[in-house]
Design brief:
elongated; alpha+beta; 3-stranded antiparallel beta sheet
Length: 228
């Protein structure tokens, strides 16, 4: 036995509240009685299909049919006549249309993957050139520190020492006499360029126009290795 209940949008009377037979009549309502569905039990049968509907001024009637396939709920709702059976020619046209759509989808996917692959190759090439350019402007000690730790130490025009790490924002620190960081800075060129290019720009700015880059930077104090 299959039990379902439904409610119309503008009626206070429950429609199809405890439907348990194969045919029947429910209380009439002033609007479409099949607006909202609430399934109260679907495990007792495979599926329910309401094939035909008639709506007059007094009642709404329907025919309740159990299908053979196992789909629960109202997934096989057919408000009018049974679906028209396609001819062989229509089936063939339908399959061709589906195949064309799938082929077009695959082409779009392949093009998107190609564009992403080219963009990734360009980024890798740019990163390689930026690495080579940075190393060309470093001393032997700086180049070794960069290769081993991805960081370099730079002396500004004022004589202050700075540590530049691989990255963009927040990668520049001023060092105290004991070599520990005492101040942090966030100043960098665009995030779209490779980080070695950003480190090189910071290095050259500190060496040749320290006051200008510090004036642009956001800064904070560092005590005992922590930002304060």
């Amino acid at each position: 036995m299959y039990v379902t209940s439904g409610y119309a949008s503008t009626s206070s009377t429950a429609t199809w509240h405890a439907w348990t037979t194969t045919t029947g009549t429910t209380t009439a309502c002033t609007s479409d009685p099949w607006v909202y569905w609430h399934d109260v039990g679907t495990t007792a049968c495979s599926t329910a299909v309401w094939r035909t509907w008639t709506n007059d001024s007094t009642a709404t009637t329907g025919t309740y049919i159990i299908a053979d396939h196992r789909v629960l709920g109202w997934q096989a709702w057919q408000p009018q006549a049974e679906q028209k059976k396609l001819t062989r020619a229509e089936l063939k046209a339908q399959r061709k249309r589906q195949a064309d759509e799938e082929a077009a989808r695959r082409l779009r996917q392949q093009e998107a993957e190609r564009v992403l692959r080219l963009a990734d190759e360009k980024r890798q090439q740019a990163a390689k050139r930026a690495e080579q350019l940075l190393l060309a402007h470093l001393t032997k000690e700086q180049a070794q520190a960069w290769t081993e730790n991805r960081a370099i130490f730079v002396t500004g025009k004022s004589g202050k020492r700075y540590k530049l790490t691989d990255g963009h924002g927040g990668n520049m620190q001023e060092l105290g006499p004991d070599g520990q960081p005492v101040k942090g800075f966030c100043v960098h060129v665009g995030n779209h360029i490779p980080s070695p290019d950003n480190v090189l720009a910071q290095k050259l700015a500190l060496e040749h126009d320290e006051e200008a880059i510090l004036r642009l930077a956001n800064s904070w104090r560092i005590e005992n290795g922590r930002r304060v």
